[in-house]
# Entry
Amino acid sequence: MIFKNYNDFENETLWGVNIDMNRKKIALLTSLTIFGGTNIPFNNLVNNQSNNIIKAAQRKKSSKIESKYPDIMKKLDITSMQQYDSNILFMSIALKNFYVKDFHTDNSGKTTILLAPLITSNQYFVTSVKLDHKIKKNQRITIQGFLNGKTKISKKQNFNDKYLDKNAVSVLVDHISY
# Structure
């Protein structure tokens, strides 16, 4: 039987007997629920696909940043940077979670920072940058930038005397994370 509207359904008889209205409503609602429920997995599939596309786009964005600034730990042996010629030490790099060993801020507001990969390490990285946050000794920071060859820590950088004349690698900063 095909019903054109609800009133036709309400007045229908089955084998000459008027069908109880409650049974009609139950049958109608059950059939609508069954047919309506078949679309749920499709809707979930569409939602999952859009979520997967969004997650993939986020991963792609972060991988672009990582490829522009690869982790120095994966590119170089940082335990003995002296093995590298100064000409080789010119590349974009990320110093992830390096320790601030010492720092000095001059009158112009520029801060010279001495970094090390481990708190006990004697391999140093030196950079000079204007900071928008305060830093403390032994704080971990991440720097994305460019290695700029070898250098020696000098008196004019105003670090603690125990670092004087130590070898270091110069870093030009593009971005800093505290």
Observations:
- The radius of gyration is 34 Å.
- Residues 72-177 form a domain with the OB fold (Dihydrolipoamide Acetyltransferase, E2P) fold (CATH 2.40.50).
- Helices lie at 6-10, 21-37, 40-68, 72-75.
